[in-house]
Amino acid sequence: MLTLPFDEPPSNQTGSPFRTSWAANQLIRSVKPEPGRAPEDTFESRRGIGERDDREEEEKEKEEEEEEKEQGGGQRRRGSYKKKASQARLERVRLRRIEANARERNRMHSLNNALDRLRKVVPCHSRTQKLSKIETLRLARNYIWALGEILNTGKRPDLLTFVQTLCKGLSQPTTSLVASCLQLNPRSFISEPSGESFPLYPAYHHHHHGAEAVGCSSVDSGRPLGSFCGPYDSLYDSPSPDGSSPLDAGTLNPAVNFDGIFSLKREEPGDYRSCHYGLRYCSVSQGSSTDLGPYDVRLRGQFYQAQEELNKPFTY
DNA sequence: TAGGCCATCTGGTCCT
DNA sequence: AGGACCAGATGGCCTA
């Protein structure tokens, strides 16, 4: 499933639903504000948790007052001391909770940042249509699996098979996006309404070293697949990147050096040396672009010489 | 309007 | 004791 475009700030940053209550504000003022976030932006208010805490505190105070009454006036001083100590302890607990919340937010933010970085290095990086977290992880997993297979076999799969591998287990919108990114008609392999779907691992003939395209499907884009056809056969011997992947069992180490051989897209915009596979697309507009509908993805056409060197082992 | 996705809070558990 | 990590709960936003 696709989520908000990259351009669009997350909803929690603009018009956040997490409004504050007076009680929460009073507490938060004593906590260091989170960078990039309004300190009054808390969760207590909308859930009424701050109010609930206040109520609990009142109830505790009432109980303590009743205890004092039962114990008589002589122990009133000790009771009030207990009350103060209890209040201080409560304050400490609540303060720790608020600090823990802030830490948890930061932790999740860093996790999301890592996911954003991952989004940028998976094969389909759309600037306007962001992959969801789970789809990003699935796509990355398939990508790693596919790259590992290429390394293991030394063979380059045909485009259709490669895309099918990437899309294994992805939702239909994401599959369409990936297919569009790679200029493949999603209908080539997405399940038809009739329920029939293109087999992900068709029973092609096995070629141990042949480069002939056997069963190489034509794609609607009309792009010449040429070197992408054929030698992915050995992949069909391996489990698919769904739940039964060797990656799951830890038996297959893709051993992909992302900064080396494949050198995926780096953080710096405009660095295209990382074009592995000859089919890298990116979101940065550069030169000729391809209008692919709502996804605003652009074809990365140029390859640097260094990249060609890196890809040499995969050319036939 | 239902469902998907998300951010956040929260309490529990584990570790240092 | 306190921090990291985790999973459940909650409610908002968005889209089909």
- Element-level helix/strand string: HHHHHHHHEEH
Structural class: mainly alpha
Query: Biggest β-sheet: count, sense, barrel?
Result: 2 strands, antiparallel
What Rg, in angstroms, do the CA atoms define? 28 Å
Determine the strand fraction and express it as a percent band.
under 5%
The largest sheet has its strands arranged as 1-2
* Portion in helices: 40-55%
DSSP summary, beta strand count: 2
Q: Please state the average pLDDT score.
A: 53
Separation of the first and last Cα atoms: 37 Å
Query: Helix tally?
Result: 9
Shape: elongated
Q: Uncertain segments of ≥5 residues (pLDDT<50)? A: 6-75, 191-239, 243-316
Keywords: Developmental protein, Differentiation, DNA-binding, Neurogenesis, Nucleus, Transcription, Transcription regulation
Protein name: Neuronal differentiation 6a
Biased composition (Basic and acidic residues): 31-53
Biased composition (Acidic residues): 54-69
Topology record:
Layout: H1 22-28, H2 44-47, H3 49-71, H4 76-121, H5 133-153, H6 159-167, H7 172-181, H8 246-249, E1 281-282, E2 298-299, H9 305-311
Antiparallel strand pairs: 1-2
Helix pairs in contact: 3-4, 4-5, 5-6
This protein binds a DNA duplex (16 and 16 nucleotides) through helix 2 and helix 4.
